[in-house]
Amino acid sequence: MNEILEVSQLGKSFGGVHAVQDVSFSVKRGTICSLIGPNGAGKTTVFNMISGLVEPTRGLVRFEGEAITGLPAHRMAHRGLGRTFQNLAVFAHASVVDNILVGMHSQLSANPLTAALYWGRVRKQEIEARRRVEEIIDFLEIQSVRDLPVGTLSYGLQKRVELGRALAMNPRLLLLDEMVSGMNQEETEDIARFILDIKEQLDVTVLMVEHDMGIVMDISDQVVVLEFGKKIGEGTPSEVSQDPRVMAAYLGNARSDAA
């Protein structure tokens, strides 16, 4: 199957407010898909429904051909979905290594007894988890800060640590929520490079919510555009950038803000 994710007529109502209405799109395996739109368009609500944080009012979500609609978030990690959040959710007083190790939790099978005894499969899993963490640290080029408390790092490095924790879940689909929000130009370019490497070197499909139109147009294979909870456009970056509805709803606003 070429589509790793299929979203069909997804909707969410909060009381009388229709936050998302009949949104449908699919994400092809091995691609980067961006979900864009002005503030209040429903992007994060769609993300939250896909990742299990919010239960849809209607519609269907399929991952690798299986319905996952309404499954709790912790089940998503076991199935191969990883996610970052717009607001940093790191453990500020813990080291970089320990923060990334937290992401390995869904890959481990220890119970309190076997963890206390630390033998057999538990010991092998712990060794493998730490080896995997070191690979992620090397991949994200944060070797020099691996033992530092995350709270002492710059904002850009903290976002890399959060990205590393999501990669530690060994996802086949990675959901990135506003990864470059608040970053300077150099940090943004670094993250764009890492996202491309995640797709090309790690063979992980990426779905991202993003406001930075530069990164969206530079690295996306597909762009889905929302406005007022409805899909108003979809296609390649080139196709979307020439769609009058999209330019009016989002791209025009972004250009005005940048002026």
Structure commentary:
Helix 3 (96-102) packs parallel to helix 6. Helix 7 (185-200) links the parallel strand 7 and strand 8 (205-209). This protein has 259 residues and is an alpha/beta fold. The strands form two sheets. The protein has a six-stranded mixed beta sheet with strand order 6-7-8-3-9-10, sandwiched between helices. It is globular, with a radius of gyration of 19 Å. The chain has ten helices and ten strands. It is 40% helix and 24% strand. Mean pLDDT is 87; it is low at 109-117 and 253-259. It starts with a strand and ends with a helix. The chain has two domains: 1-80 and 171-259, Rossmann fold; 91-169, no CATH class.
Looking at CATH, the homologous superfamily of the largest domain is: P-loop containing nucleotide triphosphate hydrolases
Assign the CATH topology of the largest domain.
Rossmann fold
Query: What profile does the largest beta sheet have?
Result: 6 strands, mixed
User: Mind telling me the C-alpha Rg?
Assistant: 19 Å
Inertia-based shape:
globular
Defining key terms:
alpha/beta; Rossmann fold; 6-stranded mixed sheet; 4-stranded antiparallel sheet; 10 helices; 40% helix; globular; disordered C terminus
Give a quick precis of the structure.
The protein is of the alpha/beta class and 259 residues long. The protein is built from ten helices and ten strands. β9 and β10 form a beta hairpin.
